[in-house]
Design a protein that fits this description.
Elements (H helix, E strand, L loop, with lengths): L1 H5 L3 E6 L2 E6 L1 H30 L6 H14 L8 H4 L6 H32 L14 H6 L2 H4 L21 H12 L5 H32 L5 H10 L11 E4 L10 H21 L25 E4 L6 E4 L5 E6 L2 E6 L1 E2 L2 E2 L2 H13 L19 H11 L3 H11 L4 E4 L11 H14 L11 E5 L5 E5 L6 H19 L19 E2 L8 H15 L2 E7 L4 H6 L4 H17 L5 E6 L8 E5 L3 H11 L4 H23 L5 H14 L4 H7 L5 E4 L22 E3 L7 E4 L10 E7 L1
Parallel strand pairs: 6-10, 10-11, 15-17, 17-19
Antiparallel strand pairs: 1-2, 3-12, 3-18, 4-5, 6-7, 7-13, 8-9, 11-12, 14-20, 15-16
Helix pairs in contact: 3-5, 8-9, 9-22, 11-12, 11-16, 19-20, 19-21, 20-21, 22-23
Amino acid sequence: MAEAHQAVAFQFTITPEGIDLQLSYQALNQIYLSGVRSWKKRVSRIRNRVIKGVYPASPSSWLFVVIAILATMYMRSDPSMGLIAKIHLFTDCYFKYLKHSLVFSTLLWFSLILALRFCLKLLLSYHQWIFEQHGRISNTTKVWTLLRLLSSRKPLLYSYQTSLPHLPVPAIKDTLSRYLESVRPLLTDPKFKRMTELANQFESNLGNRLQRYLKLKALWATNYVSDWWEEYIYLRSRSPIMVNSNYYGMDFLYVTPTPVQAARAGNTITALLLYRRKVNREELKPSRVPGTVIPLCAAQCERMFNTTRTPGTETDVLQHWQDSEFVAVYHKGRYFRLWVYRAGRLLSPREIEYQVQRILDDPSPPQPGEEKLGALTAGDRIPWSQMRKQYFSSGVNKRSLDAIERAAFFVTLDNEEQGMRGEDPAGNLDRYAKSLLHGKCYDRWFDKSFSIVIYKNGKSGLNAEHSWADAPTVAHLWEYTLATDAFQLGYTEDGHCKGEVDRSLPHPQRLLWDIPSEAQVHSSLAVAQALADDVDCHVFPFSEFGKGRIKKLRISPDAFIQIGLQLAYYRDRGGFCLTYEASMTRLFREGRTETVRSCSNESCAFVKALEGGEAEEQCRCLFKLASERHQNLYRMAMTGAGIDRHLFCLYVVSKYLGVESPFLKEVLSEPWRLSTSQTPVQQIELFDLKNHPDYISLGGGFGPVSNMYFPLAVIANIDGKNKLGSGFSTD
């Protein structure tokens, strides 16, 4: 094989005349250039550590401090007030004062950096600004705007990480009070009275004991929630992650940049690798609260690429590798390793297209057991773990599995056509969503941090594993990919990628397998197929109005949608239910999500008034109150005053201590019958919607996790004026 031949750097044979040594200079040159790339990355990481370590100052500011100190000493003034003279170094007299001054300047510089970082952390810990109404800013918030001065320097992706505050542990009394208020409209008077008694008993007895342990963890850990949330909500789940956990992202709604499958793959893979380069070099701008300079935690970016969830008997493990120079590709039941770097150089989009086309043209059939092997990642976790230990711990299977798991990401070259097309665009959109959510249950590798799907007609999409990050992080990646693909890289007139091709590139490497038994593969596939068949998806574009018109009414677009969903559920079911809306807590270090309990007393009052035929003015007033209440709930969740993560952690502590709490047990067993999520476009500047209004993504969605669970993935892709795309996934 060509790739095997080029991998040999030297050969030698022993003859009667001695040892005959033959060197492959081409292979050695490849090794040298790859080593240079590796060392460049190491130097870049060291440089970034230095820049981050002194932020919000700069490394060059040290020279400024030194020159200032030396200048004042030259003018016969002692800025150290005698401290320089007290610094004793074993030096010659000629350089004594100069070296003493350098030591003092460096210590002063470090002190200034610590002071600036303390001020920055203090400013980032202030969250009252989020509760203030537009045009009514307090004096404290006006002083707080000094944060802009400390954020004036161009930060790296992780520059703010050490300055972000830690997530606070709410007072247990406040959490219980907010919990009881959230369930009041859902319970009858006797049930509410009983729940109130359970809450009071919990607070007076076990609650304070558990709270002390939680506060101790908060003092020690960076975030008192995130590690337990990742482990117990995601990694310890033994049920399939397909549908239950993984979610999907969709392509442009109305346009397909090229109908050539290999070309779309070439540009998409290139755009993703360019994004990875930005992440590795920390060249991405830190995400911020829209319209402000407030940074959001970027920790979730660290495991975006080269990451795989590996199965275990009791818990899964997230494995992350520092780098990977290839991607794993699936096509018609075969797995390939596609190298995307050569001699330390990223292949051009045209070269990647050329390599992908080689895979598409490869006529070889799947090996025994290979075609449906991916079903192992779609079924239950314990059988996959057992299968992995038995058949994938050594030999050819281990090498091939390593190639998939160590890949930058996974690519499926799907032989179907998808998108809003043909005579049934609505039905095709539904099928498109289902395809991205679970595919054929064996043609995706659901364990990878994310998998890219390129369809036969050039349509694309994404399926992401949930444990390592939440949807906004993946949405940021996907927005960049779509925009770079369509507007930066582009295509030729005949739909191919731009650039030149080095036709001496080695062929993509076919992965080899030796699967002695396919019984478990078929068993996992049966479990996954039953789960996929039980899911109904409906996706539709809504263009009657968008957030622009909603804002003109001085209403929060999110509150508008959430109250609308409460009204829709009431009309469909004749009552209200516990409603889950995800809110981010990335104002805090390593923050992930918190629950906004969208079903409130105010929203229920509005719905009942509207359905009861109350006067229009009365309904308007109640709607305004419900909107304001929802905004306040969302803000409280964002600023660490939520309910559910605190109760979840108290429950985990109780399990560690081996004590039972009837209150916590009942709270955590309450079903979320309505789950909603929204991810607005974060990088609107990447899309020229004025000149290219059709280049808008439909967003994405997720699946139900129980028979009585109705997830509504409302993906607000809005041009700011009149368009809103909504995706719904319902069971």
